[in-house]
Amino acid sequence: MNRRNFVKLSSAAGLASCLPISCLSMQSSTKFKLGYQLFSIRDEMAKDPIATLKALKKMGYQDFEHFGFDADKASYYGIPTKEFKKMLDDLELTFSSGHYPFSDYLLKSDDELKRYTDKCIKGALEMSSNYITWPWIAPSQRTVDGFKRLVSKLNMIGEQVSKAGLGFAYHNHGYEFDDLDGTTGYDIILNETDTSTVKLQLDMYWVMHSANATPRELIAKQPGRYVMWHIKDMHKTSRDYTELGNGSINYHDIMPDPTTSGLEFYYIEQGGNYTENSLKSAETSANYFKEQLAQYL
């Protein structure tokens, strides 16, 4: 389905907006692949990316968001792009999005950023990805002036990526919700970026950790713009990451309506703090999601 027409073409859209979340799973005909953000398992990806992906597939994961693009070498996880894509095709797996290190270019010229973005676009197209995602900014950039500069870059990249036939999104952490003299970085991003070319990837852990709003409340302000989600849990005492079902976030209560969100892809994630190891955590989260949360999508 064409992502631009997703909300329009959803036959359940009108009805879903007035149904409780418990009914949405029964009404929605939309199917989402079980996704995983590969930063969660970066230690295993560094050792043997293909063996790791095979192990994740056995757990039920079908779609992934990467972080491992090398623009200079045109490779993913040390493997040339075309070769890596062939391996994914053989495994019947997809990379629908990727986190690209745009933060390194925030203080560089527009021309330098455009040239780098062209390399990202080429890689994403060769991987048959749907989205290119800006994932992070450095601590020194988390000021009003830094976010103002950021939105200018986001708008520029969004237009460039859109012209190439791909989607572009911004991924939040917690620092975007810090007070900056009566505003927040997230307010600046929401209000000063082009909603048609700069979409949003909602990290629900960081919203619950740091924002004065719930995921549903954020989505209600700009419905249809939150095209991707990160789903992860928060340790009950340390508030660090933990496996789904082991933490304090009750997704039965806070899971947003995917139709209102404009959801196209979601990724389970755990950036660290594994109970045993990264592979076991991936399996624990997959099992919990399939048993407890898949009903909402």
Outline the structure in words:
By secondary structure, this protein is α/β, with parallel strands linked by helices. It has one domain: TIM Barrel, CATH 3.20.20. The protein has 14 helices and 15 strands. α7 links the parallel β6 and β7. α7 crosses α8. It is globular. The N terminus is likely disordered.
Quick recap:
The protein is built from 14 helices and 15 strands.
In order across it, which strands form the biggest sheet? 1-2-6-7-8-11-12-15
CATH topology: TIM Barrel
CATH architecture: Alpha-Beta Barrel
Strand percentage lies at 15-25%
Order of helices and strands: HHHEHHEEEEHEHEHEEEHEHHEEEHHEH
Distance between the termini: 16 Å
Rg computed from alpha carbons, rounded to a whole number of angstroms:
18 Å
Total strands: the figure is 15
Structural class: alpha/beta
* Integer tally of domains: 1
Helix content: 40-55%
Provide a count of the helices.
Answer: 14
Largest sheet: 8 strands, parallel
Rough shape?
globular
InterPro entries: IolE/XylAMocC-like, Xyl_isomerase-like_sf, Xyl_isomerase-like_TIM-brl
Domain Xylose isomerase-like TIM barrel: 53-255
Organism: Spongiivirga citrea
Pfam families: AP_endonuc_2 (PF01261)
